[in-house]
Amino acid sequence: MIPARYAAALFPLVMTFFMAGVVSLLLTLVNLGTPPGFLRLWLLNWALAWSFAFPAAMMAIPIARRIVGWLTTAPR
């Protein structure tokens, strides 16, 4: 099992894995339909999308937390 101290990096790793998969599947289907070799093409697109999504998420998460902090108020 992975120690809990890695949760801050593991969550975006898993989340971007699934999000990149779903988005790349949708965009591949919309743009190409289901041509021969679809699975290979989709997996290549997924790998490319995820290789950008994970580092982007790691940079965006602290910024998003700050923005959410500015937009919300603490409970009383």
TrEMBL record:
<keyword id="KW-0472">Membrane</keyword>
<feature type="transmembrane region" description="Helical">
    <location>
        <begin position="7"/>
        <end position="30"/>
    </location>
</feature>
<dbReference type="Pfam" id="PF11391">
    <property type="entry name" value="DUF2798"/>
</dbReference>
<feature type="transmembrane region" description="Helical">
    <location>
        <begin position="42"/>
        <end position="61"/>
    </location>
</feature>
<dbReference type="InterPro" id="IPR021529">
    <property type="entry name" value="DUF2798"/>
</dbReference>
<protein>
    <submittedName>
        <fullName>DUF2798 domain-containing protein</fullName>
    </submittedName>
</protein>
<keyword id="KW-1133">Transmembrane helix</keyword>
<keyword id="KW-0812">Transmembrane</keyword>
